[in-house]
Amino acid sequence: MSAPDRVMVGIDLGGTKVRAGIAVPDAPGALAELERPTASEGGRALVTQLAELVRDLCREASVPLDHLAAIGIGGAGVPDAGQGGFDQAPNLGDVSSVSLVDELRLAVGCPVVLDNDVNVAALGELAAGIGREHDDFAFVSIGTGIGMGLVLGRELVHGAGNAAGEIGYLPFGADPLDPAAHRRGALEEVVAGDALAARYAPGATAREVFARAADGDPRAVSALDEEARWIAHAIAAVDAIVDPGRVVLGGGIGSRPELLEAILGWLDRLGRGRLPVTISALGSAAPVLGALRLASDAATDRTHEGVPA
Q1: Using an 8 Å Cβ cutoff, are 6 and 135 in contact?
Q2: Distance CA 269, CA 120 (A)
Q3: Which of 10, 11, 68, 186 has the fewest CB atoms within 10 Å distance of its CB?
Q4: By the 8 A CB rule, do 73 and 121 touch?
């Protein structure tokens, strides 16, 4: 079989791992997918890693590198239109010293466009998930951190500075006046994966907390209930301000069914019990599908190359 003439790469760039897929436009699935730990050094080491990942994907799919039409990246930060990278990206290390857009484009020879990772996951939901039935929703992802992608009228909301949806900075959970909470936000200080684990025991992991809660450990159950409490507060705040109609949860923590039950209980106590809240049916595929959509849009409309305007 001959190689496709026009292919896209979608990259989900997280704080702990990178997932990527390569696909042709309008195809039902990816030709190949890869996952690797994120380069902890950031900067040029991250550019090198992403370039190698793209080349490896092309080899896996038997696609020549020069057949790439565009690359879409969803990253854990706020897209910086001037720098071509990410700002407010505490989980990505040093990404301010290089332009991911320019350097990756030079390394692989095709247009590169990027956006916030949760925004990109919301695009995946819009294309292949809840967006098939609904025009308005909020996608809330909880894992290494917390973030939101907001879709209203089938359009992704970016905000004046591309920072719409950075709900980790909502001023509750931790002390919002404490400068230590300003790096990643007061809410994120209490719902991020490391915060959930630390609430249970020093040195624990979020995965262990869920396992212990399933065994009936009261401390683990309490830690998850506290997690659900603050996630529900965030959802209630979003509902009061933008009325998204429904909320979809994703991420390694947000997609856990046992947490959903506790969140719904807290929402009921907060007077938001009628708001539909569900777990994403796409799972970890949503960010890669959204990044592929981002790449496809960039390939067909070169005015969108780089970062959102």
Answers
A1: no
A2: 31
A3: 186
A4: no
Report domain 7-117+288-304's class. alpha beta
Closest CA to 116 of 131, 95, 132: 95
- Residue owning tokens 């967006």: 131
Q: Can you tell me which residue has the tokens 């359009």?
A: 155
Judge whether 264 and 228 are in contact, CB under 8 Å.
no
Distance, CA of 49 to CA of 100 (rounded, Å) = 11
**Cβ atoms of 227 and 259 closer than 8 Å:** yes
**What is the DSSP annotation of 81-135?**
TTTTEEES-TTS-S-SSS-HHHHHHHHHSS-EEEEEHHHHHHHHHHHHSGGGT-S
- Written as six digits, the tokens of 5 are 């003439």
The strand pair at 7-13 and 112-116 is best described as unpaired
Sketch the domain layout of the chain as residue ranges: 7-117+288-304, 130-279
CATH classification for the domain delimited by 130-279, as one of 3.20.20.70, 3.30.420.40, 3.40.190.170, 3.40.800.20: 3.30.420.40
Q: Is it true that 7-117+288-304 and 130-279 share their CATH fold? A: yes
Global pTM value? 0.87
Mean pLDDT of 65-73: 94
Residues comprising the chain, all counted? 309
What digits encode the pLDDT tens for the residues 114-139? 999 999 999 999 999 999 999 999 99
First to last CA, the chain: 39
Q: What average pLDDT score do residues 272-295 get? A: 94
Percentage of the residues of the chain whose pLDDT score is greater than 90 = 73
How much is the average pLDDT of 189-209? 97
Q: What is the DSSP letter of 71?
A: E
Find out whether 236 and 267 touch, Cβ atoms under 8 Å: yes
Chain CA centroid to CA 11, Å: 11
Checking if the pLDDT of 274 tops 80, the result is: yes
